[in-house]
Write a structure and sequence with these properties.
The protein is an all-alpha fold and 276 residues long. It has twelve helices and no strands.
């Protein structure tokens, strides 16, 4: 009788433990499911906003894909440098990867005649173009304020949008930040964005070869670009070229941008536009 009673109690405890574990597993599954859904909605919302910006800019959608993959690849290489190991965690690199596509979101408010101008921008037009950094950062900050909480993704996106045109020597815009005062995420995007602008075919110019782009960028290492970031970029040239080949611009995208420019230029042939 004692044996049966003890076995009965132990079976009851086992059943209770199994029930608790099943509930915990169910809760974990629901949390994972909801987290996945939230991330999917977040990604979709970002994609919608980016698509709106793309519809007004001369860039193609694959510019977004290339630059975000460049940023991730450079960050992963830079992480091998012990000075950056603590800040460039796998989680922070993934956050930069997701935030990178929002770098030019402020261009949604730039007039078409400036965005698609085939010639060099005037001083006033260039000043207007420069505002895409502050406009983009302000829009993201407004979204943060509406949420009432600080999200790492939006914080990083705001840094990139605001500061990806800052230069290592302090001659960039909008605030003339110098050196490490420029957020690391923006320093990574600066290299990725300029490289892609150089090697990509635009409606107003032919692409520069990879080797020529590297020579041009090497000349401004330490003035335009953070030396550590540029050195990490140069160390993975093969991977960078693979990314460029993986996400080429399609003829249909180029044709669409030509049509957009024709509306602005009245069908006149395009020449060259200063890279803002």
């Amino acid at each position: 009788m004692v044996l049966l009673a003890r076995v009965k109690n132990l079976l009851a405890l086992k059943a209770a433990g199994d029930s608790v574990r099943e509930k915990e597993a169910s809760i974990e599954y629901e949390v994972l499911k909801r987290t996945t859904e939230i991330c999917a909605v977040q990604d979709a919302a970002i994609r919608v906003v980016i698509s709106l910006a793309e519809s007004r800019d001369q860039e193609t959608g694959n510019h977004i894909l290339r630059t975000q993959h460049y940023v991730k690849a450079i960050a992963e290489k830079l992480r091998e440098n012990r000075r950056y190991e603590a800040v460039l965690t796998p989680a922070s690199i993934q956050t930069m990867f997701k935030a990178a596509p929002l770098h030019d979101i402020g261009k949604v408010v730039i007039p078409h005649e400036i965005l698609l101008k085939p010639g060099k921008l005037t001083d006033d037009e260039f000043e207007a173009m420069k505002t895409h950094t502050t406009v983009g950062a302000d829009a993201i900050a407004h979204a943060e304020a509406g949420l009432g909480v600080e999200l790492g993704l939006l914080k990083t996106a705001r840094e990139i949008a605001l500061s990806h045109h800052e230069k290592w020597n302090g001659t960039g815009y909008p605030h003339g930040l110098r050196g490490a005062a420029i957020p690391l995420s923006a320093r990574l995007m600066a290299v990725a964005d300029v490289y892609d602008a150089l090697v990509s075919r635009k409606v107003y110019k032919q692409p520069v070869s990879h080797s020529d782009a590297m020579k041009i960028m090497l000349e401004v290492r330490g003035t335009h670009f953070d030396p550590d970031v540029f050195d990490a970029f140069r160390a993975i040239e093969k991977e960078i070229r693979l990314i460029a080949g993986q996400y080429p611009d399609g003829e249909s995208e180029i044709a669409l941008k030509k049509q957009q420019m024709a509306k602005v230029t009245g069908g006149k042939p395009s020449a060259w536009q200063t890279v803002a």
